[in-house]
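USER: Study each token:
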Amino acid sequence: MLVALSGGPDSTALLLALREGGIPVVAAHFDHALRPASGQDATAVADLCARIGVELISGVRTEPLAPGSLQASARAARYHFLDSALRDSGLARVALGHTADDLVEGALLHLLRGSGLAGMRGMPARRGPFVRPLLSCWRNEVEAFLARRRVRPLRDPSNHDLRYARVRVRLQLLPQLEADRPGLTARVHGAALQAARLQEELESRAVQLMGAAAGRIPLRTLAGAPPAVRAEALRRLYAAAAGTGSGLDRSHLSALARLVSEGRSGDAIDLPRAIRARRGYEALEMSARAETPQPTPDLRTRPCDGCDDRSAGHFPPGTELRLGTRLPGLRMRPLPGGRTRKLQDILVDAKVPRHLRDALPLVFADGELAWVPGVARDARWAAVTGTRSIHAEVVGP
């Protein structure tokens, strides 16, 4: 597998352990170019790989980091490189060197920020192609492993920079907690592993709830699901629409839950990353909000000898046809019955979503509503099958 190799103790020990265990490995090193000595680190990593006979894929940051948190931006750049290195290597997995200490630190950081079950696990043992084999191995065990092999890893000075929250948790908060409650670190680790198992079960149930339909979940299914499973399913539905799992907080999930339980057909909520959640008659849907004007439909007509194309409308010769949209008070006499009905009632019975009704193309014959494509045809304007008629089609959205 591909090993993300920074040259530090954890990733170096992971590389050596996998190699000693007989697993073929390729190393991937990313130079963030944030310190003057980062180029020397890249050289040291290359020397190590050459010495033990491991292929190395190297990369260096050349683009500016995204604005915001330096650590978050650097992490995003690193994962982008690892995705590229994985494709170049032709391998299926990337091994990351996070240890049990990282798991505990991550869990505490997430709890301090107010996370739920997913944050309590600290970090998942696997996510997509990324795996973390050392999450049950402590940092002191890593150091002992390297010492026995007389390997001197690189040391990142940022690991002692108290400007970073993770470093403060590592060097200040955890030692204080451990001094007050000996064994607390190990107990937090056990709780994080249990949270990971529960989260994995929750995610599995959410996948079952979502089913095979893309971009939508039946309302009945959502309403009957336990709140935690429903929230996870909503996160996944959002991630599929937005291309990222981040962006929804508790206020968004609460609003979505109200939309499911109390909303009406056509009600919508705008979510981060230009995603809109809309309640239909039978399902909740999420998709990107339209940012550009949609093309208008077109009415096309031609003479017809009476074909049986049911997707088209057929009208008596000489009828003046035009395309329009909904107006107040429209009525028609839909086939096969002869009773005049309000267009509003016809659309409700056909379960046309409320937000689509005003833009729905309508065909008027001699000024009267005669055809709602895909929904209803007026009995007074329907040509008899097999007789000469005007063949009409609405082309477009």
